[in-house]
Amino acid sequence: MAAAITVSKLTKSYKQTEVLKSVDLSVERGQVFALLGSNGAGKTTTINILTTLIPADGGSASVQGYDVATQPDKVRRSISLTGQFAAVDDVLTGRENLQLIAELRHVGNPRQIATELLAKFELTDAADRQAKTYSGGMRRRLDIAMSLIGNPPVIFLDEPTTGLDPEARKDMWQTIKKLSAGGTTIFLTTQYLEEADELADRVAILHDGVIVANDQPQNLKKQLPGWKVKMVEQQPTLDDVFAHFTRKNTSTSLSIKEDK
After folding, report:
1. Less Cβ crowding at N or C end of the chain, within 10 Å?
2. For the whole model, what pTM was predicted?
């Protein structure tokens, strides 16, 4: 089967600032793919191009086999996007938010869909409360539940745990794992490296407009100086990987001891 997302030589500039210089990547169907990068690295720009919100200056990209530039309507019908801030209507209840989206997407039986999603995301007890009374974690779960209406095969999550407390973040991790287990392709951006380590099947690091590393997290860690393919007391983390590939730490020192 063709990859869920393919990107080739993608470029994008804002006035004199070249944000994406030549980005190449591929995401397999059903995979959790994490795109890492510092603030301003171009993570959100990449997502905005892939979700047809902005055009690229050059290169090509496709989602579910549809070209984002020439077939934007087909791309939009295949995806859902959850941004850095929950897009829920605070005045409406959780149930009303879900029913509204179902009606806008012309999905049959909106009330039943809302009931099923409320249960799936453990929001049944709060279903008839206004969304403004929800905690940050509850709002995030409702936001993702709304994005699932219509069963899109690909979901883009742009820093989905920004602003959440540690407990709410872990709840969100479980939600993402469940989505992945159900076969949904997830394209994730995050600044929390332990989050990518916990969730991603594959990680790419965007730095200075290009992808400087792209592999499974465990394989990336093995590329660092000092790695021992033996039982160890301490192994590299994705923090170490990120520092290494973005050259922020030119003398990566890992305290690794062989298990004798």
Report:
1. C
2. 0.80
